[in-house]
TrEMBL record:
PROSITE patterns: ABC_TRANSPORTER_1, ABC_TRANSPORTER_2. This is ABC transporter ATP-binding protein. Coiled coil: none annotated. Keywords: ATP-binding, Nucleotide-binding, Transport. Pfam families: ABC_tran. InterPro entries: AAA+_ATPase, ABC_transporter-like_ATP-bd, ABC_transporter-like_CS, ABC_transpr_LolD-like, MacB-like_ATP-bd, P-loop_NTPase. It comes from the Bacteria. PANTHER family: ABC TRANSPORTER ABCH.1, IMPORT ATP-BINDING PROTEIN. It comes from Diplocloster agilis. Residues 5-238 form the ABC transporter domain. GO terms for molecular function: ATP binding; ATP hydrolysis activity; transmembrane transporter activity. One of its GO terms (cellular component) is membrane protein complex.
Length: 239
């Protein structure tokens, strides 16, 4: 398989000096294209910090990050935002939907930044909202939808342009177990259709259903293993 992500000796120190926090401490890991990886760890262990680095949303204090074989540290801000737009769909825990836009307008918004024309934008947004089962809520604003529905809009927004990589930070963190299961099913489907999915979660039951698990503790990789649970084996068989 070809390597998508290669991180070597990556550290992130917030507030260097007196109150410094070593949020990432010499992390090294590799992720191939097409993998489905869960990143787990206690609150404050550095998961979101790692996601911000992997998603080129923030820069490390030291260490190397190669994305598609390209050293990210030499890229300009414009080049980084190009990579984010082209390669990565982000799903955040807090949904980050825009309150006064409808579901479909929220999904279309990032497509504007990708330079996609109006008609195609609309088609892609409709397709993505269908995928997440919200074709009947396209004209609803976030306040007129449940938490699970809002999260599904956020997923539709992340996947509408069909980015090859999905980075999801606790997408099920605020949801009930049924909605969580639905979201996980959608992520599995995106993986099945060729996406690389990196899923941050607190939920061990969810992590148990993902093939590879990376556990972070105090900013370092405590464990990196492949699940052999029943559910995972079942998923593999189903594929
Ligand atoms: N901008 C910041 N400035 C200073 N410290 C920060 C900043 N962001 C995060 N931290 C600290 O870095 C550490 C790692 O934070 P991070 O948000 O990556 O944890 P996390 O594993 O995502 O936790 P959670 O599960 O609660 O979301 C924490 O100790 C946190 O307090
Ligand atoms: Mg976090």
């Amino acid at each position: 398989m070809d390597m998508l992500i290669q991180v070597q000796d990556l550290s992130k120190i917030y507030n260097p000096g007196e109150n410094e926090v070593r949020a990432l401490d010499h992390v090294s890991l590799e992720i191939d294209r097409g993998e489905f990886v869960a990143i787990i760890g206690h609150s404050g262990s550095g998961k979101s910090t790692l996601m911000n680095m992997l998603g080129c949303l923030d820069v490390p204090t030291s260490g190397q990050y190669y994305l598609n074989g390209q050293d990210v540290s030499v890229l300009t801000d414009n080049e980084l935002s190009d990579i984010r737009n082209r390669e990565i769909g982000f799903i955040f825990q807090g949904f980050n939907l825009i309150a006064n836009l409808t579901a479909i307008e929220n999904v279309e918004l990032p497509l504007i930044y990708r330079g996609i024309g109006k008609r195609q934008r609309h088609e892609l947004a409709v397709e993505a909202l269908n995928l997440v089962g919200l074709s009947h809520r396209m004209d609803h604003k976030p306040s007129q939808m449940s938490g699970g529905q809002q999260q599904r809009v956020a997923i539709a927004r992340a996947v509408a342009a069909k980015p090859p990589v999905i980075l999801a930070d606790e997408p099920t963190g605020n949801l009930d177990s049924k909605s969580s299961a639905d979201i996980l099913k959608m992520l599995k489907e995106l993986h099945r259709t060729g996406r690389t999915v990196i899923l941050i979660t607190h939920d061990n039951d969810i992590a148990a259903q993902v093939k590879r698990v990376i556990r972070i503790k105090d900013g370092y990789v405590e464990a990196d293993y492949f699940n052999k649970s029943e559910e995972c084996v079942e998923n593999e068989k189903a594929e």
